[in-house]
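Recall that a protein's primary structure is simply its ordered list of amino acids. Everything else, from secondary elements to tertiary packing, is in principle encoded there. The following example makes that idea concrete.
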Amino acid sequence: FIRVQLTVVVDLLNLDFNLLRRVLPVLQRALTILSCFPDLLFTVAIINVPRFFATFWPIIKGFLDPRTATKFELYANPAKGNQRLLELVSEEELSSDYGGSGPSVAEMVAQEVEVSDVAVATPTRQIVELLTTHRRHGNMASFDFELKADEMASFTVYTNAKTDGANVVLGRCNEKVPLTTIRMTRGDGSGGSKEAGKKHNDNDRHCFKELTEESQPLRGPGQYQISVTLPPGSPHDHFVVLGNVYKYNQS
């Protein structure tokens, strides 16, 4: 597994009052997930902040874990926002839209569009689920989803679980034989693996693993289920499943 910390940039340029009201439920869900993984987040830099956003910020901040809230930085002045981004991201990697020498956002989007069996290389939609395991539910949590005939998907599982040994299973609904099973076990930093059920400190707990390989995405149509099961006796833990869904040509 790879330990990661995220730097998130949110650009509020041209955001108006009505749009913010419409996206608040989506924002609340995203912040709920972030609050379950406070140590995974390094910084959230919100730039080009409009004046009216100050009215909503106390409400938005209320959704956050206190540790997570301290990692949010707001910049109304574009120059100060870009200056901060250059401190967080190397100039070569930062988009030219924000003072770096990297490709513009429009150029990066254009580079992702390819001619292949995937009609559009960028996802047409995403599936994001927060799974929380509890002892009273047998240390298991799951969710169902559907893919249409012209859709395929790839999935990644993220966790900061206190214990190792989580089994993640992908299968068709109402079928006992799984399509894919992975076991999430972090390395000890020297290439070895720790025993299932062994606890880790906060700095060692963040990991992610691909549930589906990019070369072999899950193809529709069908009803599917993803489940996470921890070893018996484990404390409750959180897992985020992120799925990118693409359109593909069936001919």
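Residues 17-36 form the longest helix (20 residues). The two ends are 37 Å apart (CA to CA).
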